[in-house]
Amino acid sequence: MIIPVILSGGSGSRLWPLSRELYPKQFISLVNKTSLFQDTIKRLPNELSAPLVICNEEHRFIVAEQLRQINSSNKGIILEPIGKNTAPAIAIAAIDLMKDNEDPTLLVLSADHLISNNKEFMNSIINAGKIANEGKIVALGVKPNKPEVGYGYIKAKNSNNNYSDISSFTEKPNLKTASKFLESDNYFWNSGIFIVKASVYLNELNKYEPEILSACKKSYLNTPKDQDFIRLDKEEFDKCPNKSIDYAVMEKTKKGVIVPFNGPWSDLGSWSTLWNSKIKDNNNNVIDGDIELNKVHNSYIHSSNRLVAVNDISDLIIIDTQDALLVSSKKNSQDIKSIVEKLKRDNRSESINHRKVLRPWGYFDSIDNGEGFQVKRIVVNPGSKLSLQKHKKRSEHWVIVKGRALITCGEKVFYLDQNQSTFIPKEEIHRLENKEDIPLEIIEIQTGEYLGEDDIIRLEDDYQRN
Q1: Contact partners, residue 168, CB within 8 Å, separation at least 6
Q2: Is 279 exposed, middle or buried (0-12, 13-18, 19+ CB in 10 A)?
Q3: What is the Cα–Cα distance from 275 to 277, expressed in whole angstroms?
């Protein structure tokens, strides 16, 4: 049995400002109406098992909601308390899927790849599955069509029917080296897609990185399960070394082989690779949103919410969102990661979240803020409610814009309708709830000495948040 394991823990910093730490690229509709994560799930044929998903704890409700949107079943959603790279993630998946004394074949997939020929892809997977059943660890290799410096490369050794032994790995070479690889017949892009028996992977990991396996086993013991989620023990998982499957296993094992995939494939890791994958106008521009161009060529221009006019430029990336504007050369768009790292050092919220922040009960949009105040538009889904909570440093004024709200404020529980309002004093226990079958919309005005999201003391919560 082949069980897909979807790794969806990346942050996608090179696609900032659309991709943010708490809402990264794999959950965004970059190419289709569905997200890259949903496309990865929909790509799987019916004859394969339902997938096991591994994601960051912060993304758990996004994953659950996006699976629900496409009516996808799953074998569970494993939550990593901290990202430790692919070697531990695959180990956790293998441990979980072997718990019933089974030994399935794992199809390890990243949630952010673009693959446009599903038939060719599945033919490669079926072939790789047969080879994995012989005890091999199969890496899917993509024949390069350009000297790409953003991908890793695998050098194939000798060919044996449908696969080749692996000679070496090279991580993101410079342009000169990548050009040499392109001229050679035995170099492939490392797709990050692996097919391996669970027991084979764990045995090889134990041989070369026993510390990783030990930490994964301890973190998985007595894992609590709530709703659809399987939580790892944070203290034990923190001890796990941070290594990719390439460094931990593939560069050391004698069982590694490569199976070629000849169809179109892309790891959408930068704006330039996304530009390559999208439909362009007559001047070779990619346009998303309300855009007016004059004498613009070979560029990517995106607007999330307003008119963007561009005049007389070429080879640029221009991405306009509600709270951030990016302008970059297309050639060096990989370097955007450095900007995100600086934003993090400066504690800028724009590196973490969008202005509109999704929550399991709905979302809020930070409309305005200033010294001592903040204004939010809050939308609560039908039948949903916020946690029972209080704040130490702020008061709140709620105005009902649409729908009907059930309010808890101290000892009082009451309804408010459209155009009605209430005041929530600092330190008062309160809750907002929507018992209706239409969305509830309110305007929240916060006032106080500190207005950060961490000034929330949750007393009860349907979503097991701290």
Answers
A1: 154, 155, 251
A2: exposed
A3: 5
Q: Two tokens at 96?
A: 């979980």
**Judging by beta carbons within 10 Å of its beta carbon (0-12, 13-18, 19+), is residue 351 exposed, middle or buried?**
buried
| 465: three-class secondary structure by DSSP | coil
Ordered DSSP codes for 36-93: HHHHHHHTS-TTSPPPEEEEEGGGHHHHHHHHHHTT---S-EEEESS---HHHHHHHH
Identity (one letter) of the amino acid at 74? N
DSSP structure class, residue 148: -
Contact 173, 153 (CB under 8 A): yes
Alpha-carbon distance of 141 to 154, in angstroms, equals: 7
* Calpha distance 433→425 (Å, rounded): 18
For the chain, the first-to-last Cα distance in angstroms comes to: 38
How do the pLDDT tens digits run along the chain, 466 residues long?
Answer: 899 999 998 888 999 999 999 999 999 999 889 999 999 999 888 888 899 999 998 899 999 999 999 999 899 999 999 999 999 999 999 999 998 778 999 999 999 999 987 788 888 888 999 999 999 999 999 988 888 888 889 999 876 667 888 988 988 888 899 898 888 888 999 999 999 999 999 999 999 999 999 999 999 987 776 667 899 999 999 999 999 999 999 999 999 999 988 888 888 889 998 999 899 999 999 999 999 999 999 999 999 989 999 999 999 999 999 999 999 999 888 889 999 999 999 999 899 999 998 899 999 999 999 999 999 999 999 999 999 999 999 999 999 999 999 999 999 999 999 999 999 999 999 999 999 999 999 999 999 999 988 899 999 998 877 7
Q: Rounded to an integer, what distance in angstroms lies between the CA atom of residue 22 and that of residue 58? A: 7
Q: Please check whether residue 250 is in contact with residue 110, taking contact to mean a CB–CB distance below 8 angstroms.
A: no
Residue 157 tokens, joined:
């050794």
Q: What is the widest separation between alpha-carbon atoms in the chain?
A: 76
Q: Report yes or no on whether pTM surpasses 0.90.
A: no
DSSP string, 187-252: EEEEEEEEEEEHHHHHHHHHHH-HHHHHHHHHHHTT--EETTEEEPPHHHHHTS----HIIIIITT
Token pair 């070394």: residue: 241
Rounded to whole angstroms, how far apart are CA atoms 225 and 228?
7
